[in-house]
Specification:
By secondary structure, this protein is an alpha/beta fold. The protein is about 40% helix and about 15% strand. The protein has a single domain (about 10-245), classed as Rossmann fold. The chain has helices spanning about 20-30, 40-55, 70-85, 110-130, 160-180, 200-210, 220-230; strands at about 10, 35-40, 60-65, 90, 140-145, 185-190, 240-245.
């Protein structure tokens, strides 16, 4: 994908580590200038920015708490101001908490679950709404989901699954809304990987791996490659699609 994204500006939310950082690298390798967001890991975000600049592109890190939907317009404005526009939006930032707790668990932290819904669902919607106003024609939106949205498989994942499943419908709707401008809108359902998010407890993780066709945890770069493809000109006729990169979890 050398230079396929030359002259493009991309925003990768949650780009300071894991899949977000891997995606930022893949887009930079294709020539895009990249903005990443972070919440509290400023040092890690700065390291990613230095790495991207070393690849020959412009890069910035912007602090943003995605759970606060009122911050979305300013985030998009900062990207446009600092990098000169916006062509590609990668909605990667998400949190995963309380996995393994069933909905009838009296000790579940409901406030934490509500924050997860705000971060993973309404926060993503707010950023898409703000970005849609400034995305240049023929732009790209790729939202990162999870195979759990399609096939939960084990107890204790209801709230996390709901945040990702809701984005499937939103992605398909926005694909129709923005198609007249040549903007494609797709989703990549990621599988098990080491990203820095809270992992499932060992028993849940073992059960999930046993249900995969490819029985291993993936590397972030593997899914980042799929994201970069959907962000490229090669994917100009793909929109409203949900691409699984989950090792066969949903097969």
């Amino acid at each position: 994908m050398a230079h396929l994204l030359q002259g493009k500006v991309a925003l990768v939310t949650g780009g300071s580590r894991g899949l977000g950082a891997a995606t930022a690298r893949a887009l930079a390798d294709a020539g895009a200038d990249v903005a990443i967001t972070y919440v509290g890991s400023a040092d890690k975000a700065a390291e990613v920015v230095d790495e991207l600049v070393g690849r020959g592109v412009r890069a910035v890190a912007l602090q943003n708490d995605q759970a606060d939907t009122s911050l979305a317009p300013q985030l998009i404005n900062d990207v446009v101001t600092q990098l000169g526009g916006l062509d590609i939006l990668i909605n990667n930032a998400a949190i995963s908490i309380e996995q393994g707790r069933t909905v009838d668990d009296p000790d579940a932290d409901v406030a934490a679950l509500d924050r997860m819904h705000a971060t993973n669902y309404t926060g993503v919607i707010a950023i898409i709404r703000a970005a849609a106003k400034v995305l240049r024609d023929n732009g790209r939106i790729v939202t990162i989901g999870s195979g759990i949205a399609t096939r939960v498989g084990v107890p204790g994942l209801a709230d996390y699954a709901a945040t990702k499943a809701g984005l499937v419908g939103y992605t398909r709707g926005v694909a129709h809304d923005l198609a007249p401008r040549g903007i494609t809108v797709n989703m990549v359902q990621a599988g098990l990987m080491l990203t820095g998010m809270e992992p499932p407890n060992p028993e849940v993780l073992q059960g999930m791996v046993s249900n995969l066709a490819i029985k291993r945890v993936s590397e972030p770069a593997e899914t980042a490659a799929a994201i970069a493809f959907l962000a490229s000109p090669a994917a100009s006729y793909i929109t409203g699609a949900v691409l699984d990169s989950s090792g066969g979890y949903t097969a």
